[in-house]
Each structure stands twice: as C-alpha cells, then as structure tokens.
Amino acid sequence: MENNIIKPIVYIESSVISYLASQPSRDIVIAGRQAISHDWWVNQRHRFDLRISALVEEEISRGDSLGSYVHRFVHPKNYGEITMIKDPIVDEVRRHRQEHAKENENDLNLIIESLRKRERDSKRKLLNPGPKPRLDKTGS
Is 10 helix (H, G, I), strand (E, B) or coil? Predict the structure, then answer.
C-alpha cells in the first residue's frame, strides 16, 4: 500500500538559496544564517514539499555572479525536489508592464509620465495616506 502523506508546503525565499550557494562568510551573523540554512537543507527539507515562486526564480536568475550558480542549484529540471509556481497574476502584470513599456518606447520618463497622466485622468478616488505620524519619545 502506497504511503500518501501530504507534506506541508514550504516556499523557499531567495536569501535561503543564496545562503546555501555562497561561500562561507566571515560576518558572524551571515555565517550563522548560512549554517542554519545548510542544517535545515540537509536535515529537514525532506519533510516538506518545497516550492519557489516565479518572482523568487526571477530574482535569483538575475542576481550577481552567484546568480547563475544559484539558478542551477534550484532549477526544477535539475533538482526535482523544488517546484516553481506559475502565477497567472504575475504573468498578467508582466505582460501589461511590457506592453506599456513598448507603447512608451521603453523610455522610463515617458512611462512615468503616462502613468501620472492616467492617474490624473482617472475618475477613481486615489488614496493618499499622507506622512506617517511621528512617534514622540518617552522619557525614561
């Protein structure tokens, strides 16, 4: 009889992947995070259904010189334990962003101005939370 235990899902954040893939740090805090990440990866990951979001996958793939190594480290084709989640909302936002950029010749100033114009012309009420309230110091 097959064991059909459903494992809890854990979304792996990009910093965890970086800690796993990077050289040991001399910074004591970072070294501690690296050690904890490595220990969890070796001893605990098998208990979970590991996932990374499309945003994390994008972030780690465009990283520094470590990025390409990190990308291979977690790529689902190479490491079947991690599933990348395809997010249709993220895909739609990216599609609109690309279309908008193309309409404005990929010029950041034109893009910003067109967004500001769209906001001015909108009939929707826009929220402006204003400045954050200052916290007064309390005497001790």
Answer: strand
CA angle 25, 31, 32 (to 5 degrees): 175
State pLDDT tens for residues 69-111. Answer: 444 445 444 444 555 556 676 677 778 888 988 999 988 899 8
Q: What is the largest CA-CA distance in the chain?
A: 67
pTM, two decimal places: 0.46
Nearest-10 crossing angle of helices 14-21, 54-61:
40
Per the CB < 8 A criterion, the answer to whether 66 and 21 are in contact is yes
Helices and strands in the chain, H and E counts:
6, 3
Residue 133 has pLDDT above 70, yes or no: yes
Contact 126, 119 (CB under 8 A): yes
